[in-house]
Amino acid sequence: MSHWFHRNPLKATEFAKFDLKHVLKNEHSSKICGELRLRRDKFLKHLESASSDLEQVETEFNQYLALFYGFLFDVTTDGDKESKLRYLIRIVWGNSMIEKDGIELSDAWFEALNICYNMALWYMKHGAWVSAKDEVKDSEAKTAHCCLKKAAGLFEFIKEKTDFLCGLDDFPGNDFNMNVIKSYLNQSVAEAQEIAIARAIELQHSPTLISKLAAENARIYKEIDSLLEKFNPSTFEKWRCYAQLKNKFYLSYAYCYLGESLLAEDKCGEAVRSCKEGIKCYKEAQEICVKYAKSSGPGFIAKPEKHLFFRRIQPLLERHLDKAERENGFIYHQIVPDALPTLEENASFGLAKPEAFIYPKKSDAWSLTAYDAFDLGKADTPDFSKAKKSKKSLPAVKEEKVYQTDRDPKNVSGCSVM
Fold first, then answer.
1. How far apart are CA 343 and CA 165, in angstroms?
2. Which residues contact 402 (CB under 8 A, 6 or more apart)?
3. Are the beta carbons of 58 and 48 closer than 8 angstroms?
4. What CA–CA distance (Å, rounded) separates 173 from 175?
5. Predicted confidence band at 406 (pLDDT cuts at 50, 70, 90)?
6. Overall CATH class of domain 27-389
7. Rounded to whole angstroms, how far apart are CA atoms 373 and 202?
8. In 3D, which of 386, 394, 393, 391 has the Cα closest to residue 169?
9. Which residues 6+ apart lie within 8 Å of 352 measured at CB?
10. Across-strand partners of 91?
11. How sure is the predictor about 418, in pLDDT bands with cuts at 50, 70 and 90?
12. How far apart are CA 96 and CA 24, in angstroms?
């Protein structure tokens, strides 16, 4: 889908050495640290390209987390007992929005959740890459849909575990702020539903269903805007504008298909009112597109106004309005109400749900011998203090540019992913 999705940058991080030589008692523990260092670097390199092979990236992600398991959980038990190694490592991570501020924290959960965060951001980028092709097959549309749901599942997992981390409130707008996490979670769900909406239009499902799905998406994007409104405008303006324009755009779709549904129910006056409101929302979306292009803040910008899925709604609204006004003049003679018809959001089908993420089981490398070989008696006293601003400079991740097609899809909906 050409220039359709806004994407924020990946999180930067320092190279993790896992240099614990004075703590390691045998080759088993030494091998774990060496392999963690190599796997982490290899995994993060793959994230730099949204076109990296999905299966390979997922495999490396799960293998790294499985190997990191022993730093989070006590491998001598089957439960979720805290590992004796949890506070042993200190790694610096940046943020997707406040890019210049590196944060360091002695907590293995800080590393694990940041890795999950970057994977979720990559899922969103990979979904956008798939949707940006000249021709998107049905199987590829499902892949994009699945990636967005998996991203949502990871953000949900992160949201549930963020309380483990201490002191991050000192960094306004950081990625572990609950409003930022919820915004990413909501965006992933809403964008997955966008694919469902386009498919519903393409397969000519009932106007009532399409209107409900579009209204639900408009509501989600409005919530994202509200979640981000208290952050620094110079950093978050672009992301907020994206949420605002998607809110108005999907309101225009919701009122368009509600108008069609009302006309079929012989409620011609309400149909006229609905279509007029849809045109108003569409014009507001066009205005926000101009504002979005000039707005400040990080991110790879979308250009929705150039996409057929965006452009097709105005003539569709005008056709519905023309028909409703014509039929009202000839047959119905109904008063066009001042009050707006109610948009329903309780769609029975098509609503996207996050695909739950479950932390991988421990790697076979975590034998009791390997776990016992980490001698904490020889470790420096762990730093249990809260998160601190790092003195180290973290360069931005050099992400490969994502190809975006300028060709219009040859289908009914105007959406390349459906």
1. 41
2. 7, 50, 51, 125, 128, 129, 132, 300
3. no
4. 6
5. low
6. mainly alpha
7. 60
8. 386
9. 145, 148, 149, 152, 189, 190, 192, 193, 196
10. 105
11. very low
12. 34
Give per-residue pLDDT as tens, 166-209: 889 889 999 999 999 999 999 999 999 999 998 999 889 999 99
Query: One-letter amino acid identity for 189?
Result: V
Give how far the C-alpha of residue 181 lies from the chain's centroid of Cα atoms, to the nearest Å. Answer: 9
Beta strands in 98-178 (DSSP E): 103-105
Residue 55, classed as helix, strand or coil, is helix
Q: How confident is the model over 12-27, as pLDDT tens digits? A: 999 999 998 889 988 9
Amino acid at 330: F
| pTM metric for this prediction | 0.93
Token pair, residue 267, equals 């409620």
Q: What is the pLDDT of residues 51-63, one digit of tens each?
A: 999 999 999 999 9
Place of tokens 């009112």: 273
Place of tokens 């509200």: 226
* pLDDT, tens digit (0-9, with 9 covering 90-100), for 340-371: 999 988 777 778 999 999 999 999 999 999 99
